[in-house]
Backbone:
DNA sequence: GACCAGGCACATC
DNA sequence: GATGTGCATGGT
């Protein structure tokens, strides 16, 4: 199986089509983390509104968010949906950050990759995708993020079976690509890009640029 | 008005 | 261990 070749071809095609994505859309590592939690099963546009509210109120820093009362937080992030549960999840992360690293992202991100990943997964509300988004896009660790688009696109083009689990798919990418943060960063961003533009819920997309690779 | 979005935890079988 | 369900807003 020429998986390695295929994955690289997909990357090149997407890169030529869309160019550099320069992800994550967020100004600071902390904003990336907040965005990663808020975007769970939610359209990014709604997340931007929520983040805008936090920014406007001066709450978008570890200390500020740590001390912000949950009900107030929930109200501010209302546009991102699931606001009660997400307020709780953000608070869980803040408790973790302050308890384990004294509120310092630098300290947190000086932890070794697999250890930090495991610890993040122990925080209630942080699952595999959120943890990996935080690690890759806020912490610059070389880890590949899998999301709904990744599964949908590969499955539409019959490269994977539908029920594949997160870590199997993550292994597929990571074992067949060079372990570079920049590559993982761009690749996932490009997948989201082509996903948003072409591979949405409408069953088939004739215009999908990836059709070129897989004899339609 | 239905359907969906860059998940996750928890209940139930 | 697999499958189902609640969480909620805003855009198409």
Residues:
């Amino acid at each position: 199986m020429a998986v390695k070749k295929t994955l690289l071809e997909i990357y090149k095609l997407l890169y030529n089509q869309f160019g550099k994505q320069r992800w994550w859309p967020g100004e600071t590592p902390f904003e990336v983390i907040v965005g990663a939690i808020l975007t769970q099963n939610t359209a990014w546009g709604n997340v931007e509104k929520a983040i805008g509210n936090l920014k406007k109120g001066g709450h978008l820093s570890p200390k500020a968010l740590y001390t912000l009362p949950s009900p107030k937080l929930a109200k501010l992030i209302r546009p991102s949906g699931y606001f009660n549960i997400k307020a709780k999840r953000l608070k869980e992360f803040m408790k973790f950050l302050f308890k384990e690293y004294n509120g310092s992202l630098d300290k947190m991100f000086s932890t070794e990759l697999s250890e930090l990943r495991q610890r993040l997964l122990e925080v209630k509300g942080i699952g595999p995708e959120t943890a990996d988004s935080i690690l890759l896009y806020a912490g610059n660790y070389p880890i590949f993020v899998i999301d709904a688009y990744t599964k949908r696109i590969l499955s539409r083009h019959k490269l994977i079976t539908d029920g594949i689990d997160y870590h199997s798919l993550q292994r597929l990418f990571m074992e067949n690509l060079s372990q570079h943060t920049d590559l993982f960063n761009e690749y996932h961003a490009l997948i989201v890009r082509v996903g948003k533009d072409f591979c949405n819920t409408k069953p088939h997309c004739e215009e999908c640029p990836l059709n070129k690779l897989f004899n339609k």
Residues 41-43, 45-46, 49-50, 78-86 of chain A lie near DNA strand C (CB under 10 Å from a C1'). Chain A is about 60% helix and 0% strand. Residues 29 and 138 of chain A are 4 Å apart (CA to CA). Chain A has a mean pLDDT of 95.
